[in-house]
């Protein structure tokens, strides 16, 4: 029954995503500013969630790989006339290779040290983009990127970009789900739970962490391609600290240990960023307040709400059962049967 309900939920979600661009008003806003943004932001958050869920490593450097891919495409196509067919795979390869190089030294640390190292990598990317003017355009970045037509989808239109972003997100999500069920995914979970035990079993923990980080960098690099076509430009602000925090907030809002949660959190953050300005000029403060509330009261994020409320319901029923037992009238034998049972259990334990 549970599997059937899950299948029905997946089908309903798929139908909803397909129907969405045809039923919303103002496609320029709802399809592009809400739908496409939530998808590419969710895919970037997916890279962070994948790493956190399977290795326990929380990274703030995912936008470095995202930015590397975006800058590579913009530089090769807009500045040097390369075709997208050649520049897109090469840009994703550049971002993934950068992730591999960072992983070689970053995964030797853990906890807050790993967090600070990845934050430093993100800031290094920001300042490199700011100062390498001949390549990156400095503070102004590279503008005027013309989205191509891929597989019949015109990415210059909101609908074409929506289908492209949705297809990329579906493929990357399927890749993460597939990897989680392979021996590689199970080994990563083992590393997350106990590195010492995995070493004792003969696993190369360092290599597993490097591989997981590289996969996450590949996901982030691919999301950088979609984001470039969404913005039609790339600037240092797009890979700066504020943007990195947006990715972290999206992952935490959705549930940092849930792959679907990355997209749920991105959708929630996109809604807050688009509509909070109608209620308060301090929309960044509101975003921060929502983040704090989720961390304090809903540690499982949006994806964990069902499990959290189910736990509350079970504890409430257990409390009610104990209360009824306490106020119930005594048994006809005056409780002698229960007393004998308790004495018998006590005697057996002393034996």
Instruction: Give the H and E element order.
Output: HHHHHHEEHHHHHHHHH
The gross shape turns out to be globular
The total beta strand count reads 2
On the 0 to 100 scale, the average pLDDT is 87
Q: Can you describe what's shown?
A:
This protein has 351 residues and is mainly alpha-helical. The chain has helices at 2-23, 27-55, 62-79, 84-106, 111-131, 133-136, 158-180, 183-193, 195-200, 205-231, 241-254, 259-275, 283-297, 305-327, 336-350, and strands at 149-150, 153-154. The chain has a domain at 31-240. Strands 1-2 form a two-stranded antiparallel sheet. Helix 2 runs parallel beside helix 7, helix 8 packs across helix 10 and helix 11 (241-254) crosses helix 12. The longest helix is centred in the N-terminal third of the chain and has 29 residues, at 27-55. It is globular. The relative contact order is 0.14.
Topology:
Blueprint: H1 2-23, H2 27-55, H3 62-79, H4 84-106, H5 111-131, H6 133-136, E1 149-150, E2 153-154, H7 158-180, H8 183-193, H9 195-200, H10 205-231, H11 241-254, H12 259-275, H13 283-297, H14 305-327, H15 336-350
Helix pairs in contact: 2-7, 2-10, 2-11, 2-12, 3-4, 3-5, 3-10, 4-10, 7-10, 8-10, 11-12
């Amino acid at each position: 029954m549970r599997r059937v309900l899950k299948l029905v939920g997946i089908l309903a979600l798929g139908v909803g995503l397909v129907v969405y661009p045809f039923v919303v008003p103002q496609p320029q806003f709802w399809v592009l500013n809400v739908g496409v943004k939530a998808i590419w932001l969710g895919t970037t958050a997916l890279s962070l969630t994948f790493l956190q869920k399977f290795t326990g490593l929380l990274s703030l450097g995912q936008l470095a790989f995202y930015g590397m891919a975006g800058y590579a495409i913009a530089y090769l196509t807009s500045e040097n006339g390369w075709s997208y067919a050649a520049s897109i795979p090469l840009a994703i390869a550049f971002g993934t290779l950068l992730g591999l190089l960072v992983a070689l030294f970053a995964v030797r640390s853990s906890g807050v040290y790993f967090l600070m190292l990845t934050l430093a990598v993100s800031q290094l990317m920001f300042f490199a983009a700011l100062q390498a003017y001949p390549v990156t355009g400095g503070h102004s970045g590279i503008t005027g990127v013309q989205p191509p037509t891929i597989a019949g989808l015109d990415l210059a239109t909101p609908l074409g970009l929506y289908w492209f972003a949705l297809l990329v997100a579906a493929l990357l999500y399927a890749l993460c789900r597939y990897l989680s069920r392979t021996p590689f995914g199970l080994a990563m979970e083992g590393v997350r739970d106990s590195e010492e035990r995995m070493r004792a079993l003969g696993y190369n923990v360092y290599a597993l962490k490097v591989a997981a980080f590289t996969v996450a960098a590949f996901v982030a690099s691919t999301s950088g391609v979609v984001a470039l076509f969404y913005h039609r430009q790339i600037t240092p602000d797009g890979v700066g600290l504020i943007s990195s925090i947006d990715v972290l907030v999206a992952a935490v809002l959705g549930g940092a240990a849930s792959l679907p949660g990355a997209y749920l959190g991105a959708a929630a953050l996109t809604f807050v960023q688009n509509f909070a300005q109608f209620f308060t000029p301090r929309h960044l403060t509101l975003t921060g307040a929502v983040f704090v509330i989720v961390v304090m009261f809903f540690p499982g994020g949006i994806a964990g709400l069902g499990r959290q409320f189910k736990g509350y319901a079970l504890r409430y029923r257990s409390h009610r059962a104990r209360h009824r037992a306490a106020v119930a009238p005594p048994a006809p034998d005056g409780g002698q049967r229960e007393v004998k049972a308790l004495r018998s259990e006590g005697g057996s334990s002393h034996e």
